[in-house]
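Next comes this protein:
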Amino acid sequence: MALKYKRILLKLSGESLMGQQRYGISSDMLQHYARQIKELNEMGAEVAVVIGGGNIFRGIQAEGAGIEPVTGDYMGMLATVINGMALQSALEGIGVYTRMMTALKMESIAEPYIRRRAIRHLEKGRVVICAAGTGNPYFTTDSAAALRANEIKADVILKGTRVDGIYSADPEKDPNAIKFDHLTFKKVINMGLQVMDMTAFTLCQENNMPIIVFDINAPDNLRRIVLGEEVGTLVAQ
């Protein structure tokens, strides 16, 4: 089976784990993502995952609670570790070998992120879960996804969302929003479209790292993308 994308970086938001809940982790959504990742793994794709923490805590919530922004960002990083542990447990429960690597040292539960070691895990067929963002405040998990994708020389970043691609406006609010199948980095910037935060997006643009934005909730989308079908919106040079 010929794969168009052999090594991928899958970016999952923390909110995607909530399902219909207001916060926390939905077991149904966790199993849904685990099954999709397992399918890619069995197809021979090398999969790294960067996961957010917004279902548990967002750094931007901190200021309103009287917590200084830097401390709030570190709390958000710890939230991504909780999500990473949940995803690791779900994957291993269905027979997928994984390694969780964190940008903050916490050897009792995960390996420290080391680029060469991450690549070796991927080559051995293990799913690598990258948690704790970049390990630095002021950087989002989008930036972590862009950084890790470039470090491991991924073929593409797959950004899973609730909608089936990039639109001219929010399709959940504007019924006249137009969906794009292909966009250049320059066009995204000129049109003011929100794909990733600007730091992450610029890093992808400078290193010619393609991004596919797609509906993560559709059961077959990940498999179809890896096989080369046009799903969602491709952003490339």
Q: What stands out?
A: The radius of gyration is 17 Å. Residues 69-93 form the longest helix (25 residues).
